[in-house]
Design a protein that fits this description.
By secondary structure, the protein is an alpha/beta fold. It is built from 10 helices and 8 strands. The chain is globular.
Length: 253
């Protein structure tokens, strides 16, 4: 049975960093290959995981729209899509990565999106853990997959704006009728203590048991250099906290 973690929050709070560290932590924890899905059009999860992206699902979607009649004889559209999804997958040492890429251009994508949704769900079923790094909103989750989110990980920085955005995303998830098992608020890169106004917001919210990650110069140095987080040493305080978060996720086989 697949355990799916969706990571969301406003831009610039470290969603991709948390996602990359989660992929690493879950791979170490399970000893299995983790599926990472980069659902942010401003895709940089591959960079943080240290792999190069040559093809995205967005590229595949555009090709299907333009070249639907060029699919080889004897091959169904469904078979062709599954094959192309496999080609778009990048393999790392302990993960596979699918990058969703750009949103739709002009034209009708309904049929193509339905095929993609069906086969993305089927691909996810092959993995014990799936981590989805989302855009600032969560539109991707409603458009691209029908599966249940076992954990919705809302990432914020230590500001009222960040926490307010995270809390509004819980309401958005309900509006989009996403099936979510558990919602966790992660306040990222806390330099010292949380500002009193932020503490008050969290205490008054349904997500009062927030998890904090400390500002980690080891992470900041790698990000500044554009180096992958796979180089982060085990001693990293942020990685230890993410491993602690990952340790609370249990996949029922």
């Amino acid at each position: 049975m697949t355990f799916t973690i969706a990571v969301a929050g406003k831009g610039g709070v470290g969603k991709s960093t948390i996602s990359a560290l989660l992929v690493r932590a879950l791979g170490e924890k399970s000893g299995e290959i983790v599926l990472a899905v980069d659902a942010d059009p401003n895709a940089n999860l591959g960079e943080k995981l240290g792999v190069k992206i040559d093809k995205t699902i967005g590229d595949l979607r555009e090709d299907l729209l333009k070249r639907a009649e060029e699919i080889p004889a004897g091959t169904s559209k469904q078979e062709h899509v599954r094959y192309q999804i496999q080609l778009a997958m990048v393999e790392g040492s302990s993960f596979n990565l699918l990058t969703m890429g750009r949103p739709e251009g002009p034209g009708c994508y309904c049929y193509i999106n339905n095929i993609l949704r069906t086969f993305l769900d089927a691909v996810m079923d092959d993995y014990t853990y799936v981590v989805i790094d989302n855009e600032a909103g969560m539109e991707h989750l409603s458009r691209r997959t029908t599966r249940r989110m076992d954990v919705l990980l809302l990432v914020s920085d230590a500001t009222k704006v960040g926490v307010d955005t995270a809390l509004r995303l819980t309401a958005l998830a309900k509006e989009m009728e996403l099936e979510v098992g558990k919602t966790v608020l992660v306040i990222n890169r806390v330099a010292a203590q949380l500002p009193p106004a932020v503490c008050e917001m969290v205490r008054a919210s349904p997500l009062k048991d927030a998890v904090e990650t400390a500002f980690d110069p080891l992470v900041e140095d790698l990000v500044a250099k554009g180096d992958p987080l796979t180089k982060l040493p085990e001693s990293s305080p942020m990685f230890w906290k993410v491993k602690e978060i990952a340790g609370s996720f249990t996949c029922q086989v």
